[in-house]
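To whoever picks this up:

The parser on our side crashed when reading a file containing two proteins. I've narrowed it down to the boundary between the first structure block and the second sequence. Both blocks are reproduced below exactly, byte for byte. First block:
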Amino acid sequence: MSLKGKNALVTGGSRGIGRTICVRLAQMGAHVLINYVSNPDAAEETRKIIIAAGGSADITPFNVADADMAQDTVKALIKKAGSIDILVNNAGITRDGLMARMKEADWDMVLDTNLKGSFISSKAAARSMMKKRWGRIVNISSVIGFSGNAGQVNYASAKAGMQGLTKSMAREFASRNITVNAVAPGYIVTDMTRDLPEEIQEKIRAEIPLASLGQPEDVAGAVAFLVSDDASYVTGNTIHVNGGMYM
């Protein structure tokens, strides 16, 4: 599954699942564009990991929720690199709270970053893909977008919205040989889940048929498949990576 000669933009690629996706795509031969918004040191660490392994990567800071900034930056990236062939919409935030107490600003912030940000980045990158008549877009959704979760009405709504975005873009771009799919992770071992009390982790594992949290590499593997030629006839679909938590 070689991606040699392809340019891949990964939003929110500085750490966690995003970092692992960046490393995996670089291992496959892609030149990776690592996006971040607030942690340049983490982005540089991701770049160093890729370079040390013999890969190729650059860092590109921009806020996916800022339409003008995102579109201008992606346009500049396309001009410099020649094209963006692969886009992974991974950038996302949480602002949890019960709906009755949730501030409208917390709703807007999560929807703007997690859903609108994917729309903005896809719209900007798709121009390059349509011109080349080849492209891969992968949206990182979540099991929460399918099951819902108390205290995360904003996050669940944004991730559920990504399913409609994915399917609609898949239909619109198919004639240009651009596939659009989603990956919906369950509970994955990241800095956030590591900080959960052990009793909470045990409760989560009890709800998962495979009885363990997933690894970032599990998500990166699904992304790797979807951007490869092996998935050239797969579009408008979601791969659930959740250990059977949601079936």
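<<boundary where parser fails>>
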Amino acid sequence: MKVAVMGYGTVGSGVVEVIDTHSEIIKKRTGGDALEVAHILDLRDFPGDAHEALFTKDFNDILNEE
């Protein structure tokens, strides 16, 4: 299951960290469905972040995700 995180402050970055850190536990609790962070929406830049390729500043990128 793909998810988008709206904002990468304290809460948003924490959500991404929990999804990454506990992916196997989440998979077991959802009956085998893994969560995948498809996009992170934030107006700021985060150069060097491990999830740098997932960042977007345009909400339409999330809406048009297939």
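After patching the parser it read the second block fine. The mean pLDDT is 95. Helices lie at 10-21, 23-29, 59-63.
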